[in-house]
Each structure stands twice: as structure tokens, then as C-alpha cells.
Amino acid sequence: MNEISPKAEISPKAKIGNNCKIFPFVYIEDDVEIGDNCIIFPFVSICDGSRIGKGNKIHQGSVISALPQDFNFRGAKSYVKIGDNNVIRENVVINRGTHRDGCTVIGNNNFLMEGAHISHDTVVGDYCVFGYGVKIAGDCEIHNGAIFSTSAVQNANTRVGKLAMVQAGTTFSQDIPPYVVAGGKPIVYGGPNHTMMNEAGIDAKVQKHIANAYRLLFHGKTSTFDVINQIRDQVPDSPEIRTILEFLESTKRGIMCK
User: Fold this and answer.
1) Are 98 and 69 in contact (CB under 8 A)?
2) At a CB cut-off of 8 Å and minimum separation 6, what does 138 contact?
3) pTM assigned to the model
4) Is residue 110 scored above 90 in pLDDT?
5) Would you name the residues annotated as active-site residues?
6) Which residue, of 14, 24, 63, 223, has the fewest CB within 10 Å?
7) Max CA separation in the chain (angstroms)
8) Which ranges constitute the DSSP H helices of 68-223?
């Protein structure tokens, strides 16, 4: 049984699941799908192209599937897809994709704090945290468990790896690899992210191997290509080391500090 305020403006074409609570002054357009057990607080706008899963909480003033802030946008039908059990706090903006059938994706169990902005065609994994005022530009990738502190800015077409930590006020234009702490202006490597690796249950021995891999990357004077070969030759194999190698091999914008 849904609890929907009569003061909410909801298109009859919108599809809303069961056991949802929708507060006054919520605005929901036609091409919207919302799963079960969601809570939509006052003054939220959920626009065409929104596909929202189960158990999400969307707080006051947020805008979901806003039109892309991209000069290439020509009015094509595109989407925002949000998974399950996300918390989207006040005044968050998530833009939909730029081109036809393009999509901005937010996975499951993410926490977006007040004023965060996720731009067009960006893909966010699961269990990520976005601090106050974080700004993510278009066409970015953010892998599972990444954390952004207050006012971090990720520029377009860049990636942040699994369990990486971006410190407050950092602006970056190249990829941040998995399992690291990075921050400052200009950005610098701050060491392995042992806190999150411990939380994820990564063995201490594997953490030492990860630290060795990044010692080769950030303290050596060879190219990223050569570092990849050095890691393969010198660092014992594990799923985490393979994750690092795959990330380094697939970079298009280059690795920060390299």
C-alpha cells in the first residue's frame, strides 16, 4: 500500500511500485519507473527517463534524470538507471544520458551527500560514497567502494578504481587506480587505502603486494607499460593484483602522477 500525498504532482503514466511513501510537492513526469519501498521526500523532481529500483531514499530538492548539461544534447530519449538501497540526500542532481538510449547509471547501496552532482553518461558501481558538493563530470567511471570527500571534482572521461579514496578538495583529470588514497592540488599518491581494504577483508599479505605494485608505479621512473610488466614479474598474483593490472592496461587518459 503506497502513501502518496495528494499535494504531490505525479503523472498517471508513471509506474510506482508497492509500499512507497511520496511526500507533498514531489514532481514526477510521465516516463518514470520507481520500485518498491522507496521514500521520496518533499520538493524532489523525478524526470522522464528515470528508472529507480527498490528501497531508495531521495531527499528534498534533488533532481533525478535532469537534462544533460552537454552541448551535444539534442533532445534524444535517454535514461538514468538507479539500483537498490541508495541514499540520495538534499539537492543532489543526476543528469540523464546525452545521446539516444544513453544512460547514467548508479548501482546499489551508494550514499550521495548534499549537493553532489553526477553528470551525463557516468557509471557508478556499488557501495560508493560522495561527500558534500562532489562534482562528477560526464562519461566517467567509478568502481565499487570508491569514496569521495567533500568538494572533490572528477573531470570528464576519467575513472576511479575499486576502494579508492579521493581526498577533500581534489580536482583530477586522469585515472585514479584501485585501492589507493589520492589527493591534493596537484593530485598526489597518498599510499594504499588500508582502511577500506581492511573493511573489505583483504588479507594483510595481499595488501603488502598491492603496496609493492604501487611502489613500482609511483616511485619508479619507467612508463606505465613497463610498470605493468614489472608488476607481472615481481608481484605475486591475486585477484586484487589482476584488478590493478586490468585498470592500468585499460587507461585512456593516463594514470594520475604518471
Assistant:
1) no
2) 68, 70, 95, 98, 119, 120, 121, 122, 156, 157
3) 0.96
4) yes
5) 117
6) 223
7) 65
8) 194-199, 204-219
